[in-house]
Write a structure and sequence with these properties.
The complex is a heterodimer. Chain A has four domains: 2-57, MutS, DNA mismatch repair protein, domain I (3-Layer(aba) Sandwich); 67-208, no CATH class; 225-322, DNA polymerase, Y-family, little finger domain (Dna Ligase, domain 1), CATH 3.30.1490.100; 394-486, no CATH class. Chain A is of the alpha+beta class. In chain A, a hairpin with a 2-residue loop joins strand 1 (12-18) and strand 2. In chain A, helix 5 (129-138) packs across helix 10 and helix 11 (237-258) packs antiparallel against helix 12 (290-298). Chain A has a six-stranded antiparallel barrel with strand order 14-15-16-17-18-19. The longest helix of chain A is centred in the middle third of the chain and has 22 residues, at 237-258. Chain A has helices at residues 29-33, 42-48, 59-76, 103-117, 129-138, 151-155, 167-175, 181-185, 189-196, 199-208, 237-258, 290-298, 341-351, and strands at residues 12-18, 21-27, 53-56, 80-84, 88-92, 123-125, 143-145, 225-234, 260-271, 276-287, 310-322, 356-361, 371-374, 394-405, 415-418, 421-435, 448-456, 461-467, 480-486. Helix content of chain A is 28%, strand content 30%. Chain A has 13 helices and 19 strands. Chain B is an alpha/beta fold. Chain B has one domain (21-163, 170-183, 193-233): Rossmann fold (3-Layer(aba) Sandwich), CATH 3.40.50.300. Chain B is built from eight helices and ten strands. Chain B has helices spanning 4-16, 31-36, 61-72, 89-93, 110-123, 137-150, 167-170, 229-233, and strands spanning 25-26, 42-43, 47-52, 78-82, 102-106, 127-132, 154-158, 177-184, 198-206, 212-217. In chain B, the strands form two sheets. Chain B has an eight-stranded mixed sheet with strand order 5-4-6-7-3-8-9-10, with helices on both faces. Chain B is globular, with a radius of gyration of 18 Å. Chain B starts with a helix and ends in a 14-residue tail after the last helix. The chains are: A alpha+beta, B alpha/beta. Chains A and B meet through helix 13, strand 12, strand 14, strand 16 and strand 17 of A and helix 3, helix 4, strand 5, helix 5 and strand 8 of B. Strand 12 (356-361) of chain A pairs antiparallel with strand 5 (102-106) of chain B, so a sheet runs across the interface.
């Protein structure tokens, strides 16, 4: 609503029709705190709270917004995403969470980004759609990660409304005294099924993972895509590779028509047993060369489990960027630089994009801050560090404490002990004084490190430093550390 | 006129590996070292094994710089495959290998790392440095063949997981050359300080070549090694392949 939006502390409800009655469809936190709930009569709510802000629910626009959100999640998180109306989004995170730093980190990232959009969200990750759906809406915390095979104990205390049952069924069960999922699980199935229909136990089985519930993946209609159905299910790597080549050729043709290149491709493989397997590959620059894309996809065939066979394969260019045809320069004098971006894409898809990088220089005197990881393929960064001080080829991830005998204030140690081995310093160079970066943290205002290059009697050369300037205790602890090893 | 022995050697070589290109080499510019290597330099399309000597087998800092110096003198990008991300780019840049040319790759376990190296060689256009602890005969043979086909070197930088780990130097491999680089006390200076780094470079094994054991000064800013002044002054003839430590 933009600037015309009411203040967040005032209760706000959305009103819609349900069976010829005007009822509340959604309530915000303030309204919920005042005792309003979805499904309540609109007139009743208005009597309870005379100054209540009411707006008509626009279901079609909500649906469109949810679809846009699904588009976004599809590009950002996982190849299998589906809108779960009226208010949910379901993401199949299998094999994707590690790319976002783990399951918790992925959910936290999702919540943070949604908060940036202005959405308050609740998230849960569980083995099955039903369990995740219930725990996201009725779980204790807004961010829940349920470990594998632990959904049942987490679901037991939840109310029956968590099971995606019709309102009448939940009310009928409440009349019989069933409040929580726990109450139902011990009951014999047949009498309840007779009274409430088969949906009751199907929903419970779906939540517990006893019944399959396939997710119909959302596909943005405007994205270049191709699909192929099989009269006879396929399962061999050779057959899958052949189909990949056919699909990639079709998608590349669409890409060429639109003058765009693919940055991300999703291959969805619908299996006979209603599972959907997915392969997602990304590229470091827009690509529409079929050979390269086929190579990337084929490299991942071994990660999928075709089960009893695949009956439908879909290839979607989820992320695309403009890519006009360019003329390649041909030089008479020198052979062209070998293009290694296909290799980088292949390795990045295999290992994860964080595992392949180049190093760029950062203007900082503190050694561990002088380097930054940048994308492996890209413009030349002209990384350059000052050369007048030697730097070691190996830098320890964390400086390691050493026991030393050293005269103060500005002499290198005479001997030191590192990892249980005593080294007698034969000769040394230094100190190179590095001051803390006071503009980063207050604690670094006075901090000082004095770096020395020392050589022991066997010729090993170390990069060691003393925290502090050797005189003033406020500049550091005056302890010694090994930070690097010279050759 | 070509000597008959040379013709015979060329014929045997073409029988051994028919896809082999004419061997391109990278000379070190150090006569006694180049004399030990067939073709007068380090073969470009080959697997070379470098390990740290003395107490520094886990970090192999001198060996890393030796490898960086070799990679720096070969044009084109370098894929540096790491098991632990402790390579410090400013230090490597001081051995002549600019950070822009190095693509760092972290992979574990080692089988995955070796697979990535082989993939890179198959793709071509990159030199590869692989930091590994174990290298079996089969794996090294695969890498050697891939390097021969690519015409690009792969340097297996052997790093022990622990300082007590003896597997690095023990097992045989199919590498064309095997080197051990040990830090030595630097040349004494008239003033306090540390002089130019000195290494003992041992060429332990070299296919179709001689072994060598030589003391050199560490890489300069362009990746070149140099003979220390004491040795350079001596008339070291290229014919005597083995130089013992002569201080």
């Amino acid at each position: 609503m933009g600037s015309s939006a009411p203040p967040t502390e005032a209760p706000l409800v959305l009103v819609g029709r349900s069976n010829r009655k005007r009822v509340l469809l959604a309530v915000d936190q303030a309204a919920r705190a005042a005792g309003l709930y979805p499904g309540m009569d609109a007139t009743k709510a208005r009597i309870l709270m005379p100054g209540l802000t009411m707006h008509d629910a626009k279901t079609a626009e909500d649906q469109a917004g949810l679809t846009r959100l699904a588009d976004w999640a599809l590009q950002r998180y996982a190849p299998i995403v589906a809108p779960d109306p009226p208010d949910g989004l379901i993401i199949e995170a299998t094999g994707c969470a590690h790319l976002h730093g783990g399951e918790e980190a992925m959910l936290a990232d999702l919540r943070r980004r949604l908060a940036n959009f202005g959405y308050d969200s609740r998230t849960a990750m569980a083995d099955h759609w039903g369990a995740a759906h219930a725990l996201a809406r009725f779980g204790r915390a807004p961010l829940l990660v349920i470990p594998p095979n632990a959904a049942e104990p987490a679901l037991r205390p939840l109310p029956l409304a968590a099971l995606r049952l019709p309102v009448a069924t939940v009310a009928g069960l409440a009349r019989l005294g069933f409040e929580r999922i726990d109450d139902l699980l011990a009951q014999p199935r047949a009498p309840l099924a007779l009274r409430f229909g088969p949906a009751l136990w199907r929903r419970i089985d779906q939540a517990l993972g006893c019944a399959a519930e396939p997710i119909e993946p959302h596909r943005p209609p405007e994205a270049p895509q191709a699909s192929q159905t099989f009269a006879e299910p396929i399962g061999t790597p050779a057959a899958i590779a052949h189909t990949i080549a056919t699909l990639v050729a079709a998608v590349c043709e669409q890409l060429r028509t639109c003058q765009i290149g693919a940055r991300g491709l999703d291959l969805l493989l619908h299996c006979v047993d209603r599972r959907c397997e997915a392969i997602r590959v990304g590229t470091s620059a827009p690509v529409r060369d079929p050979t390269r894309l086929v190579r990337l996809l084929i490299d991942k065939i071994e990660t999928i489990d075709p089960g009893l066979g695949i009956e439908l394969m879909q290839l979607i260019a989820t992320r695309t960027e403009p890519l006009a045809a360019i003329q390649t320069l041909s030089s008479l004098a020198a052979p062209p630089e070998p293009d290694i971006t296909p290799l980088i894409d292949l390795l990045a898809n295999r290992l994860g994009p964080d595992h392949i990088y180049r190093i760029a220089s950062v203007a900082s005197d503190v050694p561990e801050r002088a380097i930054a990881r940048i994308a492996p393929a890209g413009p030349i960064s002209h990384a350059d560090w000052p050369t007048h001080w030697p730097r070691p080829p190996r830098l320890l991830a964390h400086p390691e404490r050493i026991e030393t005998i050293a005269p103060l204030p500005d002499h290198p140690p005479v001997t030191f002990r590192w990892r249980g081995v005593r080294h007698r310093v034969h000769c040394a160079d230094g100190p190179e004084r590095i001051f803390g970066e006071w503009w980063k943290r207050d604690a670094e205002l006075a901090a000082v490190r004095d770096y020395f290059r020392v050589e022991d009697e066997t010729g090993l050369r170390f990069w060691i430093y003393r925290a502090g300037d050797g005189e003033d205790a406020s500049t550091g602890s005056h302890q010694w550390f090994v930070h690097g090893i010279f050759g | 006129m070509i000597p008959p022995l040379e013709t015979l050697r060329a014929r045997i070589k073409s029988l051994e590996s028919p896809h082999l290109r004419p061997v391109a080499v990278l000379p070190f510019g150090i006569a006694p070292l180049d004399a030990c290597l067939p073709g007068g330099g380090l073969a470009l399309g080959a697997l070379h094994e470098i390990m740290g000597g003395g107490p520094d087998t886990t970090y192999a800092a001198a060996a890393s710089l030796f490898a960086a110096g070799i990679a720096a003198r070969i044009a084109g990008p370098v894929l540096w495959c790491l098991a632990r991300a402790d390579l410090f780019a400013p230090g490597v840049a001081q051995a002549g290998l600019a950070a822009d040319r190095v693509i760092h790759l972290e992979a574990s376990p080692e089988a995955a790392l070796l697979a990535c190296c082989e993939e890179a060689l198959h793709h071509g256009g990159v030199s590869v440095v692989a930091e590994i602890a174990r290298l079996s005969m089969t794996a090294s043979r695969r890498l050697q063949l891939a390097a021969e086909r690519a015409g690009r070197p792969i340097i297996a930088l052997r790093r022990a997981r622990r300082s007590t780990d003896a597997t690095v130097s023990g097992e045989p491999t199919a590498a064309t050359t095997r080197w051990r680089v040990t830090s030595l006390p630097s040349a004494p200076l008239p003033a306090p300080g540390i002089g130019q780094a000195r290494w003992r470079v041992e060429l332990i094994r070299c296919r179709a070549g001689e072994s060598a054991d030589i003391i050199v000064e560490g890489c300069d800013a362009k990746g070149y090694l140099a003979l220390p002044a004491v040795l350079a002054d001596r008339s070291a003839s290229p014919a005597d392949g083995i130089l013992r430590t002569a201080d």
